Amino acid sequence: MTSSKNHLDPETLAAQALGRIDRETGAVVPPLHSASTFARDADYALIGPHIYSRDSAPTLAHAEDIVATLEGGAGARVFGSGLAAFAALTETLAPGAHVVAPQVMYYAAQAWLRRLAERERLSLDLYDQTDPQTLKALVRPGRTELVWVETPANPTWDVMDIAFAAEAAHSAGAILGVDSTCAPPPTTRAISLGADIVLHSATKYLNGHSDLTAGVLVTAKDDARWVDIHAVRNLTGGVLGGFEAWLLIRGMRTLFVRFARQSETALAIARHFEGHPRVAGVLYPGLASHPGHTIAAKQMTGGFGGMLSILVDGDIDTARAVATRTRVFVPATSLGGVESLIEHRRSVESPESTVADTLLRLSVGLESANDLIADLEQALKG
Ligand SMILES: *Cc1c(COP(=O)(O)O)cnc(C)c1O
Description:
The chain is an alpha/beta fold. 35% of the residues lie in helices and 16% in strands. The mean pLDDT is 96. Pyridoxal-5'-phosphate binds at residues 81-83, 106, 109, 150, 154, 179, 181-182, 201, 203-204, 213, 215, 335. Pyridoxal-5'-phosphate (PLP) binds at residues 81-83, 106, 109, 150, 154, 179, 181-182, 201, 203-204, 213, 215, 335.
């Protein structure tokens, strides 16, 4: 980490992009370096710390320093997407490594693990995160290399106790990786709870404006696996572009205020629709009725986030119809942006999806809570 201002609060560091005023021009906005390659001097020595942008580059390094600082990690690496970051991590696993991951997690990340398992690159066991003992039972001392947690988990927002999972992983000699996409640093710092690696789809909250795809890995320690992760990124080329890194830096400057507002509005929506005659259930960790509420209250210290799901009273057609009738919520996949999105999740996962037919996933943006609630009311009425 390179910031000299680490005594400041994370929201201050985020708002000022670590406070790096451009020394040449005095510009208060970080410069965008788009160079793919970096020159040498008369002695053929590199002028700066970078050689070639597949390996490292100034704007990427700046984005990485911000994420590492906010997560309290020893370093961060940006990738072209969240899944590119996840694939780089799995690439560092030993051949045949045993991996324990949740039954309910980001669909495509689990599809990647299943694919690796089918090809015998690793062996995979899935635990039920509503019952943490199932994780403990599956971890094999000396055999398990990676325990994976996603919390709150797509799209039911089940909450996993990160400290419990860290204990279970470490007691077996495994590392704990946490997908913190839906619980970014304003609310959860997984490393402080025992995580070894944190993943973000920076496409979502970190950037927050639905205008790029990016992924980040953050490490607790600058160890051999971390060196290997950098090597994998360099050798497979899944790096982020300079412009996307610059947009990501810009997005992260408002992360704390966005997340606070999104959490507040999501809670208002969840409370409004809990017990609503056309709603069979509301899944949101901020509701006392949510099974993960107690743990969420402990490890999500800056709000319960902007993601919730509504189980519509009816069948698959009722639910799909609601998703087509909203006028403020945009019917689209993804999450964490300034505009609210609604999605019939079952329709976008594969035919084997275990998501309830009647589940609508909501990503709450920055619109007024009144408009969002009124929009869902009229969509539910039909
Ligand atoms: C979107 C998402 C990912 C994948 O990230 P991409 O940037 O789309 O590749 C992984 N995990 C979670 C929880 C996500 O929401």
